[in-house]
Amino acid sequence: MKSTPNPSVPDAACRLRTLLLRDGHILSLGAYDALSAKVIARAGFELIYTTGLGIAASHLGLPDAELYTMTENLAVVRNIIAAVDVPVLADIDNGYGNAVNVVRTVREFEAAGCAGVVLEDQVFPKRCPAAVDHVEVLPLGEAAAKVRAAVEARRSPEFVVVARTDAQGDEACRRAVAYAEAGADLITPISRSFPNVEALRRFAASSPRPLCLNLLGWLEDQITPADLPGLRCKIANFPLVALYAVTATLQRIAQEVLTKGSTHDLQIERVTHADFQSLIGFPQVESLEQRYGISSGLQNTEGGGRTSQRKEATHE
After folding, report:
1. What pLDDT, on the 0 to 100 scale, is given for residue 4?
2. Confidence tier at 313 by pLDDT (50, 70, 90)
3. CA 235/CA 213 separation, integer angstroms
4. Cα–Cα distance between 80 and 77 in angstroms, integer?
5. CA 208, CA 191: separation in Å to the nearest integer?
6. How far is it, in rounded angstroms, from Cα 81 to Cα 97?
7. Rounded to a whole number, what is the largest CA-CA distance in the chain?
8. Phi and psi at residue 47, in whole multiples of 5°?
9. Contact assessment for residue 35 and residue 58, using Cβ atoms and an 8 Å cutoff
10. Which 3-state string (H, E, C) describes 198-232?
């Protein structure tokens, strides 16, 4: 059981850099809270990539429209970092303001233990491109200055800065060059930037930096693992599949329980109580109790001591 972020700040960035130096690509799933991050890491993923859309939805019940603040995002990311032993790459939207705001944002997320951040070039307030028909990007010079601010703000040179462009076609290509010149380590185009794999392949060939791809829209439907080397992809992230699958399951459970009035014959796979307690770290709590001579159970108010009153075969 961890009480401080793990891995440490330099360790996390160095570990991500080491992963990026390997042949092939790193797979990741979008995490939106500490529990989802634990499940993803336990499955064997070597990188946690946070999703701003997921954090806004799961913690505030709001859309990805810059309705949450930098500090609200940071609080969730801190919990994620403390919950897992793999590097965390954080979605910091458009940095929550201009280049000066980006400096503070990057330093806060780096200090929290992130291995890197993903910075977008949308105007304020941003909009999730998967949810609207059109997004507006900053002028190229201003956007490149924000990338440069992110690079110069980092304390460790190992800290990874991913620059995302929501521009399309030739403009996306120009921005990839400008963001690389500003110091970005990886470039992320969005699915709407290019109409097909061949166009994306040409973009990848012209980009001075390798790509970090968010597999959404046609990218998720059409890109195969065999395509990724030709796209110079170093991180292949599925940002929303976990969130959407969990949402669908919750909707189904809610409807069935409301209709039936019970969970009898609920045809939805669930983890056992024991497996969930193992995942969440309860055995570590019991181990610490034993180590420090703490008796589990309810307070014995009569004698001032503690009595063990464990519930058997319950989920309480």
Report:
1. 42
2. very low
3. 6
4. 5
5. 19
6. 24
7. 77
8. -145, 135
9. no
10. HHHHHHHHHCCCCEEEECCCHHHHHCCHHHCHHHC
Residue written as tokens 């008796």?
295
Residues in the chain: 316
- Mean pLDDT value of segment 163-190: 98
Is there a single domain that holds both residue 60 and residue 104?
yes
Domain-embedded: residue 309: no
Let me know whether 180 and 283 are in one domain. Answer: no
SS3 of residue 140 by DSSP? helix
| 209/14 Cα distance (integer angstroms) | 19
Alpha helices in the chain (DSSP H): 9-21, 34-43, 52-55, 70-83, 99-112, 140-153, 169-181, 197-206, 218-222, 241-260, 273-280, 282-291
Does a structural domain hold residue 183?
Answer: yes
Q: What tokens does 77 get?
A: 């990311």
DSSP code per residue over 18-72? HHHHSSS-EEEEEE-SHHHHHHHHHHT-S-EEE-HHHHIIIIIS--SSS-S-HHH
93 plus 242 within the same structural domain: yes
Residues with Cβ within 8 Å of residue 237, at least 6 apart in sequence: 27, 28, 29, 30, 49, 212, 213, 214, 215
Separation between Cα atoms, residue 34 and residue 57, nearest integer Å: 14
Domain boundary among 213, 246, 279: 246
For residue 267 the two structure tokens come to: 């045809």
Q: Is 141 exposed, middle or buried (0-12, 13-18, 19+ CB in 10 A)?
A: exposed
- Cα(88)–Cα(220) distance, integer angstroms: 22
SS3 assignment, position 95: coil
End-to-end CA distance of the chain: 21
214: phi then psi, degrees, rounded to nearest 5? -95, 110
pTM for this prediction? 0.89
307 assigned to some structural domain: no
The model's pLDDT over 187-200, given as tens digits with 9 standing for 90+, comes to 999 998 999 999 99
Instruction: Verify that 216 and 292 share a domain, yes or no.
Output: no
